[in-house]
Amino acid sequence: MSHVLIHDPTLRDGHHAVRHQLEAAQLRAYAAAADAAGIPVVEVGHGNGLGASSLQVGRARLSDDEMLSVVREALTHSRMGVFMLPGWGRAQDLDKAIAHGVDVVRIGTHCTEADLAERHLGHLSERGVEAHGVLLMSHMAGPEKLAEQCARLVEFGARGVGILDSSGHFLPADVTARVAAIRAAVDVPVMFHGHNNLGMAVANSVAAVEAGAEIIDACARGFGAGAGNTQLEVVVPVLERLGHTTGIDLYRLLDATDFAGRELMKAPPSIDSVGVVSGLSGVFSGFKTRVLEISGREGVDPRDVFFELGRRQAVAGQEDLIVDVAAALRSAARDQERHA
Questions:
Q1: For the chain: N or C, fewer Cβ within 10 A?
Q2: What is the mean pLDDT of each run of 10 residues along the chain (340 residues)?
């Protein structure tokens, strides 16, 4: 059995579920509760990471500076993490996070585009900051390709690598094959980040650990994009029951997640029909809010939009494509009515 490092992106991925509108007091209180529970890494920021607050993916209530400052002050033992997608964030954003005392920085890219992380991983390595490289939409590549991409990330300076099941598409066997291939290809810790569209996030996280992952992402109450993430207060005791240590205090963990349930979200994420379709079609979970908005405006079924986005192999960062797909479906429906 092994020690599993839990990485908590409640205050980053959870931001997707509330349109990036968490207030400073909410960030501060949850970070302090997570710190008291002994959660090793607490990640904070806009749902799409550093520099992403924008009209395209949603303006955050607080600036990156404000979020980093508040959480840094609240953490006395836990390390502070941030996430950045090249293109949304820039080197200046990384420097800003470093100035706020960030401990762990994750650079994310699409699963076949690891080369886009080279400059930023090098930038962080030169400044002595622990940097990880993570691959989004990992269901769109096979085990060998992901292993090859992770090996590239290590060459660029990543001290941890891994995959995000960004659409909640995986079943446990998918995760086992991919994590095992990555584990065999690199000599740094491997991470897994699951979404719960098909109700498999905890099972997939356990599969990742059993295949050799040493870092697991999980959010309080599953607070996260779309159907939500691996549920933190469930996966920790499950891993402990399987004999893996996490170092997290159970009662204080439950206190932190109870707080999150009361104070961060209107309701815990649920697997609704749109969430299921998002998972089946392999579309980024963070698209959900925009798909619902645009589908309602155009008068089309959001499930049709998700399936069409899946057919077009839409990836994170292509939010503009939602407008095109919805308009095309509306136009096709009108043509059909005219010829009926």
A1: C
A2: 94 92 96 98 95 87 96 97 94 96 97 96 96 96 98 98 96 98 98 96 98 98 92 98 97 98 90 92 86 93 94 84 93 83
Q: What is the rounded CA–CA span in Å between residue 63 and residue 268?
A: 25
What secondary structure, in 3-state letters, does 190-224 show?
Answer: EEEECECCCCCHHHHHHHHHHCCCCEEECEHHHCC
pTM of the predicted model as reported, rounded to 2 decimal places: 0.93
Amino acid at 289: T
Q: Do β-strands 79-84 and 215-217 pair in parallel, antiparallel, or remain unpaired? A: unpaired
Active site residue 100: no
Residues in the chain: 340
**Hey, what amino acid is at 61?**
R
Of 7, 15, 16, 46, the active-site residue reads 16
Q: Give 324: exposed, middle or buried? Use CB within 10 Å, 0-12, 13-18, 19+.
A: middle
CA 190/CA 56 separation, integer angstroms = 31
Tokens of 227: 């159907």
Lookup: tokens for 277:
């379709």
Q: Decide: helix, strand or coil at residue 68.
A: helix
